[in-house]
Amino acid sequence: MAGTALEAAYAIYQSLLRRDPDPNGVNGVVHTLTVNGLGPGLETAITSMVASEEYKSIIHSEFDYALALREKPGRVIDGKEVSHIISLGTHCQTSSILKKYGLKIESYPFDWLFNSPSAILHSVNDDFATFLDQSQYKSLPPYEGEPRAQHNYYLKNHGVEVFFPHRDPTTNTDYAFFQRCVHRFRAAIGSDTAKLFVIISREEHDLVNRFDELHDWVRKIGHANILAIQLREPNGNRAIRKLKVSDCGDLYEFTPISTEAGVGFPDLLDDLSVVQLVMQYKIASSARSV
After folding, report:
1. What InterPro entries does this protein map onto (predicted)?
2. One domain for residues 55 and 79
3. Considering only CA atoms, which of 125, 162, 124, 169 is closest in space to residue 144?
4. 3-state secondary structure (DSSP) of residue 85
5. Which pTM was predicted?
6. Which positions of the chain have pLDDT values less than 50?
7. Do 134 and 175 meet the contact criterion of CB atoms below 8 Å apart?
C-alpha cells in the first residue's frame, strides 16, 4: 500500500497542480490514503486539492475567457447590440467581474463605491447633485493604503457608512475623477445607443423589493435594460433563480458556492455564472476589451 500511496500522491500533484509534491504534501496524501483506504482516500485528497488556492489559481490562469465570452448571444435592446455596460454597484464586485472578463472599458460613478439600491435611486433621480455636493464629504483614515471618504447625506439617510472606499473626493484629483464619471454616465443615458445596467447586491440590501423602482427608471431612459442579481449566502449548492422577467430587464437570485470577496468570487464557476447572464445579450465589440 505504501508504494501505491506514494505513486498516487505524485500522480495527484502532477495532474492537478502541475508539479511534484513537497515533502509535507506527499506525506499528507500518503497518510490520507493509508488511513482511509485507496478509494475514499483518493476522493478526500483530490477534493482537498481542488479546493486549494493553488489549484484555483491554475484554473483561472489557464481558462480561456475569450472563448467563454464568444458564446452565441442573441438578446438585443430595441433591436440594438449593447454599446454600454454600466455597473450600478452595490459594491466593487460588479465592476471587478466585468473588468476581469473584458466587459468594462470605462468608469462610471457607481463602479467602486459602497452603495445601496435606495442610494442609487436617489443619486440618479436628482441627477447626481447630492452625489457631487462637496459639503457632504468627510475624509476618512486610509485603509490598507487606500484613501477613503464618507458621504454624510447617504450615511444619514441610507445607512451607507463608507461611500467612497477607494478614493477621497475631498481632494481635487478624486473629485475631478467622479465629475468625469458622472459626465460619462449622463452622456450614455442620454444617447440612443443600447445600455445594459448591471447591479449585484449583497444580502444586507433588499434589491428584490427595490427592483421595480430601478426597472421603472431604466424604462424611462429608453434603449436600456437592467440585469439585477440579489446575492444569497452560500449553502453548499450553487443556484440561480429568475425572480422577475420584463422587456427592460430581469431580476435574479444567485446562491454561489463561494463567499464573494468584493472583487469577484474565489470559485471560477461562480464568476462565470454572473458573466453568462451578461452574455445573454449581444455585446458590441466597442463595449468589450477581449
Report:
1. DUF1796
2. no
3. 162
4. strand
5. 0.77
6. 71
7. yes
